[in-house]
Amino acid sequence: MEQIKKSILIVDDEIYIRQSFIDYFEDRDWLVFDAESCEAALEMLKTQVCSAAIVDIRMTGMNGETFIKNASKIYPDMVFIICTGSPEYEKSEDMIQLSNVADQVFGKPMICIDKLEETILCMFAGKNS
Question: Which of these, 30, 86, 115, 118, could form a disulfide with 25 (CB 3.0-4.6 Å)?
């Protein structure tokens, strides 16, 4: 039986950040999608289901927290990782209340993407236990 490929959505307005995540996850056999805005990501999710998303918080237009709240309503089983370049960012109470958002906030630039992937896989395991 063929194993279903893990899929991930990268939501970041910086092309170099998106590309580094795309390269990493494709090398590890994930199906990768990307969007340069939260609005584009929500539009993509109308036709493409993803098991996880890495989301920047501060972007032009809709911010990452609003995207996560909206996407969580549509796909409650999707897991979300916040990755931001803002060292002062702290998750809002809304984000803390969502069980499908990782407890840890990852900073940019990413030093160890392995830890981020491990967090996603642990979240998957927690949902299946």
Answer: 30
Backbone angles phi, psi at 16, to 5 degrees: -70, -35
Whole-Å CA distances, 2 to 5, 32, 50, 111 = 9, 18, 18, 33
Give me the numbers of helices (H) and strands (E) for the chain, helices first please: 5, 5
For residues 88 and 60, what is the distance between their CA atoms, to the nearest angstrom? 18
Task: Tell whether pTM > 0.90.
Answer: yes
